[in-house]
Amino acid sequence: MADNMVTLIGTLGTEPELRTTPNGADVVTFRLATNERRRNPEGDGWVDGPTSWFRVSAWNQLGRNVHASLHKGQRAVVQGVLRIAEFTTEAHGTSRTAEVKASAVGHDLAFGTTAFTRNGQPAAQQAPPPQPPAQQVPASRPAADEARALEPAGGGWGAPLGAEDATPF
After folding, report:
1. Strand 93-107 to strand 46-59: parallel, antiparallel, or no bridges (unpaired)?
2. Dihedral (Cα; 111, 11, 82, 66), 10-degree rounding
3. Residue 41 — very low, low, confident or very high, per pLDDT cuts 50/70/90?
4. How confident is the model over 97-109, as pLDDT tens digits?
5. What is the 3-state secondary structure (H, E, C) of the chain?
6. Buried b / exposed e across 11-37, counting CB within 10 Å, b at 16+?
7. What would the mean pLDDT of 66-81 be, rounded to a whole number?
8. How confident is the model at residue 18 (pLDDT cuts 50, 70, 90)?
9. pTM for the complete prediction?
């Protein structure tokens, strides 16, 4: 695994754009906005930290799946290799941008549900997804706060995992 492998959780800031390279490879690009979200130290509620923007590219089948599945404004989880690209323009001189070549992309299920369709298999042949029992959200608690209530007590959204934490799968 590369030393610069990252996992980002954020919101699509642009609609995924599908292009085909001259050698026939498909690539989808979009911008992902991430920011830390934490409890307001001066009272109840939540505050957003500064926003970081990442340019994400997904190639071939992953890219086609992203293009068919994700849209601007949706929450997503992106895993891939991070690199900082440097470029020069007449107007601004040298600038840097953070780019992620995605190896996995999906919806952030803390904010909604999604349906999965396997590549190359007609939807009619796939087993229907299991339906979870319906749960009622108390009227006194807005639905947007429900996902935030799941936040770990010690950290905000996107808090880095310590070295002792391991992915369970």
Report:
1. parallel
2. 80
3. confident
4. 899 999 999 999 9
5. CCCCEEEEEEEECCCCEEEECCCCCEEEEEEEEEEEEEECCCCCCEEEEEEEEEEEEEEHHHHHHHHHHCCCCCEEEEEEEEEEEEEEECCCEEEEEEEEEEEEEEECCCCCCCCCCCCCCCHHHCCCCCCCCCCCCCCCCCHHHHHHCCCCCCCCCCCCCCCCCCCCC
6. bbbbebeeeeeeeeebbbbbbbebbee
7. 97
8. very high
9. 0.66
Summarize pLDDT for 113-148 with one digit per residue, the tens: 998 888 886 655 656 556 666 665 555 444 444 444
Q: Which two tokens stand for residue 161?
A: 């995992």
Q: Apex CA 82: angle with CA 162 and CA 89, to 5°?
A: 140
Taking the C-alpha atoms of residue 107 and residue 74, their distance in angstroms, rounded to an integer, is 8
